[in-house]
Write a structure and sequence with these properties.
The protein is mainly alpha-helical. The chain has helices at about 5-10, 25-55, 65-110, 125-130, 135-145, 160-175, 180-190, 200-220, 230-240, 240-250, 270-280; strands spanning about 145, 150, 255, 260. Among the domains are: about 90-190, Orthogonal Bundle (Cytochrome Bc1 Complex, Chain D, domain 2); about 200-280, Cytochrome Bc1 Complex, Chain D, domain 2. The protein is rod-shaped and about 140 Å long.
């Protein structure tokens, strides 16, 4: 390289101090420090502000047990009231079960006094029976009973539970002891209507007596009575002949399966009883 070129290069080189450092280095360091500080300070301020806000909104530790204590009496009161309501609900359920079983089964005999059954609400008829005590009545109702006036099939011929049968006994007894005229009237309303005197034909008289009296047992098969329309159950009975059936229906009959009270417990005439027998036989053979 020529001396001219060397001198030209020296003329364009960056100036430096005696130590060889660049003249703008201190300025660059100051700029970097300013940038770091300018970034860090806002971040620190934001963190402090966030901490203060979080501390102000959080509930005091001491207040939490107090809140729990203030709610505890309400919860305890709610739980304490539950057992008191449970027995009342259970009692209502038992009473409803007794009435339901009576309405579906027991009424067949006790509603009309069929087969010697004391009528629902008849205080005079029920007095000596109630005097024997509920345990005795429960046993007879569940396992069946045969007495001087008639017979009671186990559970009234139903498949109800022992508990429901006891509930039905309680229901009948409750409405048949010293209840006054209101119960007597209610019971009377369930009594069968008298055979229609205005029946124009023998067939009509037979159907009328069946609908008002015979259906109490033959409609549901109570006390061993063959159900209306059950051909298999009626076949061996019909085989005995109508004269035998007439005699049994009019004067009563006790057999292996149960008993038939005279005229089904009604005051119908012999002719109407025979007409009812004819009606049932015609529809069951």
């Amino acid at each position: 390289m020529s001396a001219h070129d060397s001198n030209h290069s020296k003329g364009h080189a960056a100036p430096s101090d005696a130590t060889g450092a660049l003249p703008f280095a201190p300025t660059l360091r100051k700029l970097i420090i300013i940038l770091v500080v300018g970034f860090a300070v806002p971040v620190i301020i934001l963190v402090v502000i966030a901490h203060i806000i979080a501390t102000d909104t959080a509930p005091p530790v001491a207040s939490q047990p107090m809140a729990a204590q203030s709610l505890a009496p309400v919860a305890q009161a709610s739980v304490a009231s539950a057992p008191a309501a449970a027995p009342a609900a259970a009692a209502t359920t038992v009473a409803d079960a007794g009435k339901a079983l009576y309405d579906s089964t027991c009424i067949a005999c006790h509603g009309a006094g069929v087969a010697g059954a004391p009528k629902f609400g008849d205080q005079a008829a029920w007095a000596p029976i109630i005097a024997q005590g509920l345990p005795t009545l429960y046993t007879r109702a569940i396992h069946g009973y045969t007495g001087k006036r008639g017979m009671m099939p186990p559970k009234g011929g139903s498949t109800a539970s022992d508990g429901d049968v006891k509930a039905a006994v309680d229901y009948i007894v409750e409405h048949s002891k010293g209840a006054g005229s209101a119960v007597t009237t209610a019971a009377a309303s369930t009594a069968p209507a008298a055979p229609a005197a205005a029946a124009t034909t023998v067939a009509d008289a037979g159907k009328a007596l069946y609908d008002s009296t015979c259906i109490a047992c033959h409609g549901a098969g109570v006390a061993g009575a063959p159900k209306f329309g059950d051909k298999a159950a009626w076949a061996p009975i019909i085989a005995n002949g109508l004269p035998t059936l007439y005699t049994r229906a009019i004067h009563g009959y006790t057999g292996k399966r149960g008993m038939m009270p005279p005229k089904g417990g009604s005051t119908a005439s012999d002719a109407d009883v025979k007409a009812a027998v004819d009606y049932m036989v015609d529809h069951s053979k």
